[in-house]
Amino acid sequence: MTASFPEIRAAALARLPADTGLDGELVVWERDRLAFERLQQRLARRGSAAAEAARQWPAHYVVFDLIHTGADLTGWPYERRRAALEALFTDHGLEAPLTLCPSTTDPVVARGWLEWTAAGVEGLCFKRLDEPYVGGARSWRKYK
Predict the structure, then answer these.
(1) What per-residue string of b and e applies to 90-107 under the rule 16 or more CB within 10 Å gives b?
(2) For residues 41 and 53, is the Cβ–Cβ distance under 8 A?
(3) Whether 101 contacts 61, CB under 8 Å
(4) pTM of the model
C-alpha cells in the first residue's frame, strides 16, 4: 500500500525516528466527510497516478497505537504505549498527514464523539488500559 500513498510514506520517512512501528488507519476526507470510496480508488494507483491522487484526495494516517520505537513495545500496557505515542507526536512535532487519534477515559467526552457520525465516523473503539498489544486478533471493542 505504500506506493499508493506517497504523502504518508514521505511524512513517515521525514518525521518519524527510524525503527518506529505504528498501528493506525488510512482515511481520506472529502467535503468534511470520510470518503471510503476515495480511499479505495487510491489503493489501485501507483507512480505518477498515485502522486496525482495524493494531490486530489490527500490521505491521513490516523495513529491508534505505538508498537515499536527502537524496541518492541507490544508487551507494555496500552496506557504506557499511549503515553509514549503522545510523547512521540509532541517531541517530533508530528502533524498531518500523520494524525494522532483522540483518546479519552471520560464517558461524557466519548458520548460527544458519537455525534461525529455525520462526518462518516462509524463509532468508537475501546482498549483496556492494562492490556498489551495483540496484533491480528485485536483485543479492543467497537461501539457503533
Answers:
(1) eeeebeebbbbeeeeeee
(2) yes
(3) no
(4) 0.89
- CA neighbor of 66 nearest in space, from 34, 36, 103, 29: 103
Phi first, then psi, for residue 25 (nearest 5°) are -140, 135
β-pairing verdict for 98-100 and 59-69: parallel
C-beta atoms surrounding 117 within 10 Å: 11
pLDDT digit string (tens) for 4-16?
A: 999 999 999 999 9
